[in-house]
Amino acid sequence: MVDAPVAVIGLGYVGLPLALLAAQKDYDVIGVDADKDKVQKINSSVSPIHDEAIASQLQRTALRATTDFADAAHARIIIICVPTPVDHNCSPDLSPVKAACRGIARFLGGGQLVIVESTINPGVCEEVVLPILEATGATCGVDFYLAHCPERINPGDTQWNVGNIPRVVGGYDAASLDEAVTFYESILDAPIKPMGSLKEAEAVKVVENSFRDINIAFVNELAMSFSTLNIDVVNVIDGAATKPFSFMAHYPGAGVGGHCIPVDPYYLIEYAKQNGFDHTFLKTARKVNRAMPAFTVDRLMGARAAAKVTTPKVLVLGLSYKANVGDLRESPALEIIRLLRGKELDVIAYDPYVGSGDDIDVEVSTDLNEALSGAETVILATAHKEFLSLHPDDLHKRGVRVIVDGRNCLDKTSYQRSPLVYSGIGR
Ligand SMILES: NC(=O)c1ccc[n+]([C@@H]2O[C@H](COP(=O)([O-])OP(=O)(O)OC[C@H]3O[C@@H](n4cnc5c(N)ncnc54)[C@H](O)[C@@H]3O)[C@@H](O)[C@H]2O)c1
Predict the structure, then answer these.
(1) What are the tens digits of pLDDT across the range 354-376?
(2) Which one, out of 25, 48, 236, 427, has a CA that is 20 to 30 A from the CA of 374?
(3) Atom number in ligand 1 closest to CA 119
(4) Residue 217 located in a structural domain
């Protein structure tokens, strides 16, 4: 056992894989989470998230979880992995980070290393985290150390995982940086890049996710534009991607979801605003991407009108924000459902990754055939692998007349040759 107990605060999509990895690397790990049910499940070796790899690791890894911060008082390395959402005004909500800092502050003083892995804007470590940690009298750089190592995990990714994704680390001082780099070197099989400051490390993560949001907004805008020009945007992107340099393919879709891409840009927008800079480009990207569920529903209404469908039942295939995971946070499918209901349509959903325990205000069928019964209109909102083999002839036999492919993942040619009215996003 490595002689440096680890406490991971927040056992979600980020904290749980990290805690398991550290335990597998022979660290004595305790997880702290505010959610009693989650703690109970983890202590019973049951995964609280829909992830086969995590479920099987929990079966064979010694990991103890608790709701009580006092149980983590012995930890030498404390890693904060709590959520960083935005509120209903899209303003950053740092209350979970602050609460986690208050939870550990009373134990600091024995030279512990505190690492923040949650996604935060530049300035949070020094302006929000540090004052809370020092409030009980301990001094950073003397009594404890502080670093930031933004997590880059991509749930559902079979190639890149918590153990092999390269990381960046920023430290409060040289000692904090050294300690944090040494820790990550001991658990990761990936390069670690030390950054010049905490702020640089914080900025890396919001820049990465803003980059993605902006690029997706660009192709989403092209999709809306090319729909009016009758040009298939996917074919155009694939054509442009044949250029071997200076082009990176991104694809349009029914909206951007999850806890990161539609959220993180607001952290930079807000912090820059407080410091006198207005990020018009980031705000425009958010506006374009937030409009995609409405654009998708417009496509659906157009396709229904073209097929003269008047029956109100609409089947939404996929509820989660991305393929092959069950995460519903900020999912465009939920906004699509809200908009469909506003048009007085009856919505039923089917998602093989979303369980009956998930808190969702829509009828979710557990059987695709049953869900299809009486649904002349189908909208694919998430490209789960189970949907990729859907064939237009089978759907037609079951009475489907309209299909909107909100992820452009179906074979357009075979759908267009079929009796179904097909519509994609920009194709
Ligand atoms: N989900 C991703 O793909 C991903 C990827 C990279 C980075 N991140 C970032 O990592 C952070 C965590 O994201 P996540 O997806 O793991 O969130 P999550 O909601 O899945 O997990 C967070 C956990 O923290 C717990 N928690 C909340 N407040 C707490 C507190 N005060 N004390 C103890 N536990 C508390 C919650 O109960 C929850 O179990 C966020 O900042 C996010 O932006 C997420």
Answers:
(1) 976 677 889 999 999 999 999 99
(2) 427
(3) 41
(4) no
- Is residue 83 lining ligand 1, measured as CB closer than 6 Å? yes
Q: Residue 32 sits in a domain of what CATH number? A: 3.40.50.720
Which structure tokens are listed for 64?
A: 């103890």
Ligand 1 in reach of 86 Cβ (< 6 A)? no
Which one of 135, 161, 196 terminates a domain? 196
Instruction: Tell me phi and psi for residue 78, to 5 degrees.
Output: -120, 125
Task: Find the domain containing 90 and state its range.
Answer: 6-196
Does 33 sit in the ligand 1 pocket, CB within 6 Å?
Answer: yes
Of 59, 16, 55, the closest CA to residue 39 belongs to 16
**103 Cα distance to chain centroid:** 25
Q: What is the pTM for the complete model shown?
A: 0.95
Residue pair 54/16 in contact (Cβ under 8 Å)? The answer is: yes
pLDDT, tens digit, 9 for 90 and up, residues 250-298: 999 999 999 999 999 999 999 999 999 999 999 999 999 999 999 999 9
Q: Give all strands (DSSP E) within 14-138, no chain letters.
A: 29-32, 64-66, 77-80, 112-116
Q: Flag whether 210 is in a domain.
A: no
